[in-house]
Amino acid sequence: MDDSSSPSVLADEKQPPRAPLLERRQQLTDALAESPYDFILYLERAVVYSNLAYPDLAAGDAYRALLLTDEVRDESFEYHEQALEALDLGNYCEARPCPDVLNHGRLVEDLQDAEGEPAEPHIRLADLAAARCFQILSISLLLCGCLQSALRFCERGLDAVPQNKELLEIRGYIEQVARRRLRKGPDEPVEMGSLPDRGVVRREVYPWNTHEPDRFSAESLSFLNQQLAAMAPKCEVRVSSLPVLLDGESTTDGYDIIPTCNQLGLFAKEDIGPGEPVLEEYSLLTANSRHKESTCDACGTELPPLESDSKAVSCDECADTIFCDDFCFEQAQQQYHPAVCDKDVDSIAKDPEDQDIDQSLYLLLLARLLAMSTHQDLHPLEVKEIKYSKPPKYFLSPTSPSSLTLPSLGRLRPNNPQRRRRLHHRRAPSRMDPPLLLHLQPLDPFTHPRKDGHRHLRDPRRPRPV
After folding, report:
1. Minimal CA–CA distance to 44: which of 27, 67, 20, 28?
2. Measured on CA atoms in the order 412, 416, 422, 427, is the torsion positive or negative?
3. Contacts of 213 (CB under 8 A, 6+ apart)
4. Please, how many CA atoms are within 13 Å of residue 241, restricted to the half-sphere of its CB?
């Protein structure tokens, strides 16, 4: 048995060197580009992400692998043949006792004890891989703070391998963390429905990200101010040095030098009168999670009455997609619509439950961003609407001064978008010295989903929920 494919959840060993892990991650990423239906490759990369301390990415790859094990086991599924072919190309069924990533602890023996009669090689391999997926998913989601999902996947794993020591240990850890977060006593029952399923997130610039701009360079500032000139002619973007935010009590009051970080700020460069528009922005980075609501597909505003003299325009290829006028239609054609035209994606993630509205909105925004990047032949991080939109936010932790933490996306609440975001100055600035610093959140479209559900994506290739 080889336990080196992934550290045990109880292991307290020194962190492995990152350089070999990053090199291995790139090798696996390249291999997946050639064989995207290979669940063994996804599991191997999940282990690498786990060892790199990226549990979010580990959970993502383990979930992809889990979906592909379903494809292998059910010949009626859409990608059954591709998933089987990937197993044959990798010669995984001939490996003895199994690929290293699956030969973890006593997993092989535990599955044999649970299954009884031996199954066909590809079914046996898929069952073993699914159990390994449940191990990685449950511990990774626990580390992300998603306790309800972690327990759900852990229980599914224990249904397959009831005696697996690692899954039993993970279940114990989930219950311990749940009792602390819910303030439950050791004898009080913990119901799955009461478990928190949203943790915290942080903005992470991954080591392999080559698309991160220098937001404070003269070139970046010049580009941003060129874009801003049409939206807010009396304002400009400048670099501002701000105190590092705190996420709890600290002793920073006694510091000789207060920790600061650079951020981009929007400054007034001319006097702005009371009631005068400060910023007027047109954006296509919008979405609508209402399936049949009469809003423009491009800008998200309400469509004009669909009468004989209406300015509304429909797409010739997908008649259900309506734009409020020729301008929006032309902008959509130039920036994103051909990537999704007639692709039967209109109903994806529409009309979500109330508790899922915010998540569906983020998902739809991501879908629009991917459509824009595909049509414009750009990496998603190079699309100008988001390339400079979110500088790092630094939060100084009293216990870990180097930690970078952001509040959960679930804390954001939707409100109504407008076709042109318009901000008004409520009172006249005193003088230009010091310059007026305006923190205008509407510049970031990701912070403005709609209250009524506007801005939701499922892969059109139908990955099923688990």
Report:
1. 28
2. negative
3. 220, 387, 388
4. 3
Token pair in block for residue 448: 């403005």
Domain spanning 18-194: CATH superfamily: Tetratricopeptide repeat domain (1.25.40.10)
Q: Token pair 């870990």 is at which residue?
A: 400
Displacement of CA 325 from its chain's centroid (Å): 32
Q: How confident is the model at residue 95 (pLDDT cuts 50, 70, 90)?
A: low
For tokens 């207060």, the residue is: 258
Q: What share of the chain is helix, strand, coil (3-state, %, to 5)?
A: 45, 10, 45
The structure tokens listed for 8 are 């045990």
Length of the chain: 466
pLDDT (tens digit per residue) in 218-266: 999 999 999 999 999 999 999 988 887 766 666 666 667 778 888 888 8
Answer for the pair 342, 318: CB distance below 8 angstroms, yes or no: yes
The first and second tokens of residue 396, run together, are 């100084």
Evaluate whether 408 touches 198 at the Cβ level (below 8 Å). yes
Number of neighbouring beta carbons within 10 Å of residue 39: 30
- Give the 3-state secondary structure of 154-213: HHHHHHHCCCCHHHHHHHHHHHHHHHHHHCCCCCCCCCHHHCCCCCCECCCCCCCCCCCC
**Buried residues in 125-141 as b, exposed as e (16+ CB within 10 A):** bbbbbbbbbbbbbbbbb
What's 101's DSSP letter?
A: G
Instruction: Tell me the one-letter amino acid at 164.
Output: N
pLDDT digits (tens, 9 = 90+) for 407-417: 222 222 233 33
Alpha-carbon distance of 368 to 284, in angstroms, equals 8
Classified as helix, coil or strand, 230 is: helix
Cα separation, 403 vs 393, whole angstroms: 11
Span(s) in the chain for CATH 1.25.40.10 = 18-194
- Going through 348-401 in order, the beta strands assigned E by DSSP cover 395-396
Reduce the DSSP state of residue 418 to 3 states and report it. coil
Q: What is the mean pLDDT of residues 429-434?
A: 31
